[in-house]
Design a protein that fits this description.
- The chain is α/β, with parallel strands linked by helices and 421 residues long.
- Among the domains are: 136 residues, Response regulator (Rossmann fold, 3-Layer(aba) Sandwich); 157 residues, Rossmann fold, CATH 3.40.50.2300.
- It is built from 13 helices and 15 strands.
- The strands form 3 sheets. The protein has a 7-stranded mixed sheet, sandwiched between helices. It has a 6-stranded mixed sheet with strand order 7-6-8-9-10-13, with helices on both faces. The chain has a two-stranded antiparallel sheet with strand order 14-15.
- The longest helix is centred in the N-terminal third of the chain and has 25 residues.
Length: 421
């Protein structure tokens, strides 16, 4: 009997246990998952100018707002030692990934070792550091950019005029330089263009000005620059000799100063590096690598002892006919002056306005017609040897030259043109 009772009690407990657990469970609040802290992604910019850096930063911030992530932004302003210190700081802040645009590609192996030893994902943009391990690489199609430059110059020089071409290359050891040069040669070689190449170690623009000045002593028909900094140095020399209307110019990057020069009729075309798209793809690569350990790359690049997963971004050629594409980046360009000069930049405003009118059809001002407009061209040669041409709509009835009452080393008409160069 006692054994039977114990069996019944045990059986009842077994029946009631799930019920007791259920009732007890109802009295508790459901557990809430802790809020995950945002992912920290570091960005180290090496050599972007201030305007382009802001474009990249804006593109990254737009993506940042869509994800549970935070951007830690560092700008080395072209200083490799400063960039190394900034990378050390990002490591101390325990970021999960770093997107890096190197100030000095040769620093790539050193920085990669520091980052990867801490198990931080590393994605390079633009410059490809030689023989360096990377989790990812995102860049414009530099080969295609060179092709676009070569095709534009070839088409323009077919219209006639001097056939000499000056190719202002970047650093000879840079992956960008090699790719763009190969792309340009793929078009210019078969076209039989007479190309003079000038390398610029460290991408320093000072040599570009000198090379342009020397090239103008011969039959210079076009200047092709592999960066906007090199282009602007060449434009300064061309404007100083009043040759900006006679020489075809093609830059690379799609920067603000180059776009303004195009809007003013002083520059012909840009191979756009598509910085917004590069930034967005790099951000997505870093985010995916942190979350899943993999990302959607579309090719591999052999980089010394390493095969690097890479995303190559499409590019485009921008000229006056489709300048609106760069206005989406920089805002309305017509009427703006280059630089921060204000009054100092507007001395040649009338001349710039006439030149811009000559570009209205989207046709290059070199080697072709001016769109059928009737008008006159005034060519002014100064004692210093500078030549300035001004396109005037309509016929000229008279020309009057007035000298200032108390000259101070610059004449009235020459002063405005001098500041415009």
């Amino acid at each position: 009997m006692i054994l039977g009772r114990r069996v019944k009690i045990l059986f009842a407990v077994c029946l009631l246990s799930p019920l007791l657990v259920t009732v007890g469970g109802c009295s508790k609040k459901p557990e809430q998952k802790p809020v995950e802290p945002p992912l920290q992604i570091g960005v180290s910019v090496g050599t972007l100018d201030e305007d382009m850096a802001q474009v990249v930063r804006k593109a990254l911030q737009e993506r940042e707002r869509q994800e549970n992530a935070r951007i830690a932004w560092q700008d080395a302003k072209g200083d490799p030692e400063r960039q190394e210190k900034q990378v050390d700081e990002l490591i101390r802040r325990k970021v999960k990934a770093i997107i890096i645009q190197l100030a000095d590609p040769t620093m790539g192996p050193v920085l990669a070792q520091k980052v990867m030893e801490k198990n931080i994902k590393l994605v390079a943009v633009g410059t490809l550091p030689p023989d360096t391990p990377l989790d990812g690489y995102v860049a414009p199609d530099y080969f295609r950019m060179g092709e676009l430059q070569g095709q534009f110059v070839t088409d323009q020089l077919k219209k006639g005029g001097p056939q000499g071409v000056l190719l202002l290359k970047g650093d000879p050891d840079d992956y960008i330089t090699r790719q763009m040069t190969a792309g340009f040669a793929a078009v210019a070689g078969p076209a039989g263009l007479g190309v003079t190449e000038r390398s610029n170690p460290g991408w320093e623009p000072a040599g570009a000005g000198t090379a342009t000045r020397e090239a103008m002593l011969g039959k210079l028909g076009a200047v092709v620059a592999q960066s906007d900094e090199l282009l602007l140095a060449a434009l300064k020399e061309l404007e100083g000799q009043g040759q900006e209307e006679q020489v075809v110019t093609v830059g690379a990057g799609g920067g603000k100063e180059a776009a303004l020069a195009m809007a003013q009729g002083k520059h012909d075309a840009e191979a756009d590096a598509m910085p917004e798209m590069v930034a967005r793809y790099a951000y997505q690569a870093a985010l995916d690598l942190v979350k899943t350990g993999r990302w959607e790359y579309d090719t591999k690049i052999n980089n010394g002892n390493y095969d690097i997963p890479a995303k190559i971004v499409p590019t485009r050629l921008v000229e006056p006919a489709n300048l609106y594409l760069l206005e989406q980046r920089w805002g309305k360009l017509s009427g703006q002056a280059r630089g921060q000069g204000g009054q100092g930049e507007t001395g040649g405003g009338q001349e710039q306005g006439q030149q811009s009118q000559g570009q209205g059809s989207g046709q290059s001002k070199k080697g072709g017609s001016s769109g059928g407009k009737s008008g006159s061209k005034v060519k002014i040669k100064t004692k210093e040897g500078k030549t300035v041409e001004i396109q005037i709509d309509g016929e000229i009835e008279s020309v009057q030259i007035e000298k200032p009452e108390a000259p101070k080393g610059q004449g009235g008409p020459e002063q405005g043109q001098g500041q415009g160069t």
